[in-house]
Amino acid sequence: MVGRVKRNDCVLVVVDVQDRLINTITQHEFIVENIKALVQAAVVLRVPILATEQEKLGDTIPEVKSLLPNAPTRKTSFSCCDNSEFMTKLNALGRKAVIICGIETHICVAQTVLDLVRDHRHRVLVAKDATSSYGIVDRETAFRRMEKSGAEITTSETIIYELTENADTDEFKRILEIVKARRTKLQSAPMN
After folding, report:
1. CATH class for domain 7-185?
2. 88, 123, 126, 139: which has the highest count of C-beta atoms within 10 A?
3. How many whole angstroms separate alpha carbon 42 and alpha carbon 179?
């Protein structure tokens, strides 16, 4: 039985949210707002964050990069798990749950998820509303495949509130500001 994800046992992984890719991604403004909310909440809740960048695709987009506590790991492999620097960082954290968001769903995100699920050492959660691809068919097919492999498909707000746990804290007040700002932005973001 799968329970709630706990902040003291998870890490957020932000995969390849880069400037040369972002404008080609389906619903990119919607996706970016959800990624930003996940990163901001992780910072408030002291959840470690690992980010990656695919070589030759530019930098992480400024609105996400400015929120990251550490520089992204550069990689040439599609799966983050095939990058020794990334795996060293992930393993050093000793966290059992990995929350993943980023692009593209059917390439780098899916390969990373499939590898993490296969190793049976991590519970893997994919934020569906913070993960996308150029094409809808690729995106939706990847979600089905990841879920069938054992990954949990969920949403950014679900994750944020699970990690927050309690409405009677100062952290919750900051989380509520993040969620409200996200909702306001999403009301105006195009759903292309």
Report:
1. alpha beta
2. 126
3. 12
Q: Mean of the pLDDT values across residues 152-162? A: 96
**Cβ contact 154:128 at 8 Å:** yes
pLDDT band at 192 (very low <50, low <70, confident <90, very high): very low
| Pairing of β 73-75 and β 152-154 | unpaired
Task: Count CB neighbours of 33 within 10 A.
Answer: 23
Residue found by looking up tokens 């996308």 in the block = 132
pLDDT of residue 175: 94
pTM, two decimal places: 0.94
d(CA 9, CA 158): 17
Tokens of 124: 């893997």
List the domain boundaries for the chain.
Answer: 7-185
